[in-house]
Amino acid sequence: MTTLETERLILREFTVADAEFILKLLNEPSFIQNIGDRGVRSILDAEGYLERGPIASYAKNGFGLLAVVSKETDEMMGMCGLIKREALEDVDIGYAFLPQFWSRGFAVEATRRVVELAREMLGLARIVAIVDPKNSGSIRVLEQIGFTYEKMVRLSVDDVELKLFARQLRQE
């Protein structure tokens, strides 16, 4: 079971017991606007999202989105981790936090630790991130942790255009 730590955070694998938090996070207006509507409207939907998403990814890929928990308060703040999408050649990093935890360095702290995991434990040479061009806060996080803009992409034919950022982790 993957558990990572930073100075202020614990990043741990999700379980179905986290469904209430996922229901709250995925229905935040900022999540829907910046990431998308996942159609999670009930605890049962949230359990299904966790089982088909992060939990399935741990089994299939050895990584996935992780719950971000405050060491100080034991409160769940958001999620951060690695995702393997069919539409992207590289593994990408994803993150989302409840608005009350924005602008306090938590996203930078969590993503830095996940980048270390990608390089040191998984041996990835490169990771990418996709972001809505209007999501300036998320773009700032990526730039602070060493990602650079590469190109515009669509995950599917009918999807919106997203900015793809990349970071080289080691030389091939």
Structural class per helix/strand content?
Answer: alpha+beta
CATH homologous superfamily placement:
Gcn5-related N-acetyltransferase (GNAT)
Indicate the CATH class: Alpha Beta
Enumerate the spans where pLDDT stays under 50 for 5 or more consecutive residues: none
Report strand order across the widest sheet. 1-2-3-4-5
Task: Indicate the CATH architecture.
Answer: 3-Layer(aba) Sandwich
Keywords:
172 residues, single chain, globular, 34% helix, five-stranded antiparallel beta sheet, alpha+beta, Aminopeptidase
Structure commentary:
There is one protein chain. This protein has 5 helices and 8 strands; from the N terminus they run ββαααβββαβαββ. With 172 residues, it is α+β, with helices and mostly antiparallel strands. The chain has a 5-stranded antiparallel β-sheet. The chain has a 3-stranded antiparallel β-sheet with strand order 6-8-7, covered by helices on one side. 30% of the residues are buried.
Blueprint of the fold:
Layout (H helix, E strand, L loop, with lengths): L2 E3 L3 E5 L5 H8 L2 H6 L8 H19 L3 E6 L5 E8 L8 E6 L8 H16 L4 E6 L4 H9 L3 E6 L8 E7 L4
Antiparallel strand pairs: 1-2, 2-3, 3-4, 4-5, 6-8, 7-8
Brief synopsis:
This protein has 172 residues and is an alpha+beta fold. The protein has helices at 19-26, 29-34, 43-61, 106-121, 136-144; strands at residues 3-5, 9-13, 65-70, 76-83, 92-97, 126-131, 148-153, 162-168.
